[in-house]
Amino acid sequence: MIKYRKVKRFYIKIVFLEVHMKRNRIIKEIETIEFAPVLIRTYAYNLNKRDWGKGKFPLRLVETYEFEFIIESEGYMNLEGKRYPLKPGDLCLRRPSETTMGEPPYSCYMISFALTNETIDDKVQPYYVNEILDALPAVLSTKNPKYYEVIFLKILEQYIKNESSSILLIRSLILEMIFAAYQEVKLDYLPSSAYARIIKSAIHYMEDRYTEKLTLEKISEEINLSPSHFQRIFKTTMNMSPNDYLINYRLMKAKKLLLITNDTITDISFLCGFESNAYFSYVFKTHMLMTPSMYRKSHQKP
């Protein structure tokens, strides 16, 4: 009986908080043509699994629009009183004035954004009503996880670069993600679905052999296409060349090694398929605006 009371009181407390938090929800209609997302913040969480044993996050009020992309997971997301199991490749959408609580363990990329520039300074963004937004579920099991992961990585990269043109590219990437998610929901759509099987085979080959010297000719030969045709359909599907994808994947592996090992920069460069330490450092600095050693130092705990 005591155990039941404790659970019941906890439940009542959560319900009270959710009702209290929802009290000031501002609901507005918005035309799709008015979408002009502005990034507020973005980050990668727990990619090195250091917080894999972390307990639940506190219940909180969502103040902006949030997309979260799950990389690995054994956890859950509580949203508006419903508990969602999270799987790798899930795309989560949280809307302003909703209540949420994360239950690790999981690792993810997250972006927070205002849907228009006019509301970016609002404490809590409006909850917009729109045909496209209304169709998107709280959790979407994406059909092409790599496609979405690349979008999140490019947003994070531009956020770090913070160049004058970054805001335009980030806006286009957020719109691309909204479009792709909507197409999956409404049309059972896979980005460039006519080539999905071929692209998946090429990606699997590159990720399986990223430590080796790979050329466009070698990859296209593996999937029985001419180099020019393969290059064209890959870029149509992934919005980047095969070489760009391979470099991004190698950099992702290198960043992980920089964080979780004490390997030298030279060892990491060769372990991740770069031809030399100098080339690795050049590519890393071009993409991250800092050297590998600076990146490692900036993520070390004091």
TrEMBL record:
PANTHER family: ARAC-FAMILY TRANSCRIPTIONAL REGULATOR, HTH-TYPE TRANSCRIPTIONAL ACTIVATOR RHAS. InterPro entries: Homeodomain-like_sf, HTH-like, HTH_AraC. Gene3D superfamilies: Homeodomain-like. Signal peptide: none annotated. Pfam families: HTH_18. It comes from the Bacteria. This is AraC family transcriptional regulator. Keywords: DNA-binding, Transcription, Transcription regulation. GO terms for molecular function: DNA-binding transcription factor activity; sequence-specific DNA binding. Residues 200-298 form the HTH araC/xylS-type domain. SMART domains: HTH_ARAC.
